[in-house]
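User: Fold this one for me? It's Phosphocarrier protein HPr.
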Amino acid sequence: MSVGILVVSHSAAVAQGTVDIARQMAGDVQLVAAGGTDEGGIGTSFEAITAGIEQLAGTDGVVVLCDLGSAYLTTDTALDFLDDDLRARVHVSDAPVVEGTVAAAVAAQTGGDVDAVLAAAASASGTTVGTDAGADDAATGLPGGTPPVSDAGAADGTNATATVELVNASGLHARPAAEFVKTAAKHDASVRVNGVDAKSLLAIMALALPKGATVTIEASGPDARHAVDALADLVRSGFGE
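Assistant: Here's what I get for Phosphocarrier protein HPr.
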């Protein structure tokens, strides 16, 4: 399964810069930038978006990320002119363009299908699809709306925690971080690792944890114990490296 990624921005520099960042972490993924107008100004180009999609037509699926509302409108117009087969393989994400592209690219690099790549992009901001992050943040006071974990309730299985050591040589870099996010996302629980949202790829990568670092995993929710155990096992395994 190969997934290509198209970055649509009003700025050519933003689109190309986003692609350049993602390539540092996902060198095998096909990424295309479609930024600015045909005259080199600020705006979006129907022709550039169409050409970008066609450039990625050889992949099994294409994920498009856009920066602003009118970029989505131009993309939608371009989709209307594609043949049915290619149109069916193009998926537009509403994730933040930079964070979403990086997360999507890492997921594609690790062999994720279109659904996995879209899910990774959606998780980049620390929220899940359909979640009102603002309301959650107000209720918890924490980034991404993840509730705090305490010892209270641990006996009934709603909360769980574990502390493990990173054993892989490169620490919690892009690929292991992506595996961590994918595993956390499988469980019905709010999960944090060293204080940040375990379902946010960029938050985990920002920790910059090296080999030998201590990883504290905390979870709350119906599947908290299973989530913590699975993530602890993943860390102990060295992420297969």
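One thing worth pointing out: Confidence is low (pLDDT under 50) at residues 127-157.
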